[in-house]
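Two entries, shown back to back:
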Amino acid sequence: MPPGVPLIHFREVAVCYEPEDRYPINALEGIDLSIEAGEWVFLVGPSGAGKSTLLKLIYCGAQATRGSIIIDGRDTTNLAARDIPLLRRRIGVIFQDFQLLPQKTVWENVAFALQVIGAPQKRLVRDVPQALETVGLHQKAKSLPHQLSGGEQQRVAIARAIVNQPAILLADEPTGNLDPQTGQDIIEVLQRVHETGTTVVMSTHDRAVVDRLRRRVVRLADGRVVSDEPNGVYHPEDGVLHQPISPTPIVREDQINSSLPNRSTFVPAIGTSAAGNGESAHARNDSVAMATNDGLIHADDVFTDENHAMPRSMPSSVNSHLRKRQRPSLLGPETPLGSETPLGPSQSSLAQSDGSAQQPDH
């Protein structure tokens, strides 16, 4: 890059998922950010603040609704799909959940990053061992992923990300699934990569790492950059949601339906699920979505019933019952859990006249 020209430049960037919906999800809003070549930048902020979406914009895993994005001297705001692979040759991505190919060895996983861009065999023979040496795994080249520890699998993911010698290395919470000592080892590997001149952009909730390295810290909240410190530290509010999500209330079944005798099981009540301002299940489900331990509810974890979300793990009979209780005017008389027969007069008399639950006599 020419001197003085940012390697990464965002100007008034916004991302809105499903803008035509009644309740569009504003993932990012008004992002102005420049990152110079060779910098190390931490992205911090509460879950749902927009950190992963910002990283996706850099490697074209998401598209801006408005604004402009310049990556490595190229306007990628509306980059054609056919041109994205060429851009990604200059970008390495480290995923929190590793995303290794389970049937391939360590050597083959790293080589795969070169094979998909058509690199000749002689380059694989030269560059793969160098990448494995950088992360300290040259002796594990023939091992399969399931034979490695979590820290070793993350090292393989780093080797795969750097084997093509990228100008930019993106890391989405690379220490999030690791114990503190293993996490420290991973950071030391990233420091060695950074010393070669690679620009590192890393999202994290790891206070110890941020405070120890004292690098540039860009803080996001509610989809906006709220601070940008050259030698920043981790703040207490970086791990706290700015818009607290009310906990789902817990109620007894006998409070849902007073006609059920001798039942004391607890089930979650119907309640909406907030995914943070900008990190929805839709954003997390694209084919290149990065894994972040951000506490959001994923599409595979819940299914929705109009405006309500019910846990997939809830028994089907409870799901059916709760749906019926939502719309008594459409479904007629109240129906007990797991039964198709409406309550008789004697059963209905168990409910108190004020609507509160009455415990049956034993």
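entry 2 starts here
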Amino acid sequence: MRDQAEAVGADLSKAIVDWLLTIVEDPRRRLKSADHAAAWFVQHLLEVTESAKSKLTQMQTYRDLLRQQLLTGKTPGKATGIRWLPARKRPQGPGKRNYKFVDYCWARLGEIALQSTLTIFASAHQGMYPFTQDLVLCRQKLTQFAALFAHDPEILRMRNARTMPVPNVIELIPGQARDLASAAAAVVDQLPPEVFRHFDDNFQVEVLNLQGGLWGMVSGAGDPDLRATRRGPSSLAFWEMISQKNDLAQVMKEKLLVRARPIILSALKDIDAARLFLDSHRPSADAEQALMEHLEDARPRLDVPGGWLHLALALPVSPDSTTLFQIVTRRVADLPVTILESEDDVILSFEAANLPLRSLVDGLTGDDPSSAEMAKKVLTRVDVAWSFLTPETI
């Protein structure tokens, strides 16, 4: 009977674990919900086990009392102990002594039932315990996986320090944020909840299910090496093992990014540089002043009379771009302006033409005598063949 009870407990724990796994694979619930449910089951098993132990102790005491009565023939003056079955449900036996014997049999049967119940509870708890431990480790592993996407300001600062800045380029980020991480968080916070649900459902079907589900990926259920690793003292070993298995963590990261990019681009489809520029310079007077400063910075530094100046203004198609165009044409009304269409950026480009060559040279060299002296040295170098510059060869 003990073997049967252990088998029933094992089947019970397997059914519970299978149900918990459906929670793990549910994009709306996942590991945290499964962890809470498993904790409730374990606590419930402990409580009912204590209750069954208490009842078993009482039943054993009651059975011992009945046994003593049967051996001595003594009958207590009033009812003592507990009854396994109510009087109305107990079969009527012929004779008082037979009645005591039947009562003893029912008590013994109750004791056996409670012992089997405790065996079932113990077997169920034993079957669930490894799963609850795995849940804790798998949540740690997913936390480490999430760290692959973490934005480290110090790393970004060092990377920017090694990268040469692009001249005459101003980066604008959404949400009036101070850095890219804050801007990304602001964009994601504005996404509707159904976007995340749809994303999770598709990723579960298209990616995770092909890897044996989320549980199969993080627990290594389909790989004996990974499954052995998950019992180690540190879950860092898991991702080290993963890196030797075709870098599964990196593959999952890339698959997530590929599917996330269209969502973010869709959220940014109505945001362009013109809008970001106006949003970052509120009120409008500040935006106008900032735009004029950028125009002045973009002007050619050579002040050569006799030529003409032309502004090419590339703007995305949007109401905010119209606002910028109106500011430019109002503040520099005497300057020819050509409007070009840009996908996202705002580009200010001046073109200078018809500049007299002599005036241009004077503008470049100025009154510095060393410039003329340097020109003479270049023309008198004997190691350079200047014949290709003679009028006959040009």
